[in-house]
Design a protein that fits this description.
Length: about 170
């Protein structure tokens, strides 16, 4: 996705959040803050983006985002279960309407026996707790950029369903 398209995607997501009176917070691992940057590059972002946590270390996922020990032990941090827990944790700690989380393997080597490009995007909101599984290819920068694209796209899709449901 080109830089201009990325900016348009972030702006569209911001406008959907604003139209619904919603807020969002992020919990990032493999994207290392890139998703927060995508949200905050949009003019007026302070109306909808509350903030985020970059929890690269497993211990921080557990302490700052309240990811249960059982999730880490049974499923690992590169899992749909961890992504959902991270999204739920950041939503609870910030009071945001929606929590969006990223976890996975950017490479170049495997983690938890999973190859680079194995990514999960967690989404938490009113009556919503889900994870999107992705299998991406490319180098670290490409994988993290694509993860942000997919996270914004997933949130926008949910917001569009909300808009239709309310309309």
């Amino acid at each position: 996705m080109r830089a201009r398209d990325r900016q348009e995607q972030a702006t569209r997501t911001h406008l959907l959040l604003r139209a619904g009176g919603f807020t969002v917070a992020t919990a990032e691992s493999l994207t290392g803050g890139k998703l927060a940057v995508r949200f905050t590059e949009t003019p007026g972002a302070s109306e909808t983006y509350l903030g985020g946590v970059v929890a690269y270390a497993t211990a921080l996922k557990q302490t700052m985002l309240d990811v249960p020990d059982e999730v880490v032990e049974e499923h690992g941090v590169v899992s749909a279960e961890c992504a959902r827990a991270m999204a739920s944790g950041v939503r609870a700690s910030t009071g945001a309407t929606f929590g969006v989380a990223t976890t996975g393997v950017a490479g170049p080597s495997e983690q938890e026996g999973k190859p680079p490009g194995t990514v999960y995007v967690g989404l938490a909101g009113p009556g919503l707790l889900e994870a999107v599984a992705l299998e991406l290819s490319g180098d670290r920068a490409t994988i993290t950029d694509r993860t942000c694209d997919e996270a914004l796209s997933a949130l926008a899709g949910i917001l569009q369903r909300e808009e239709v449901g309310l309309g």
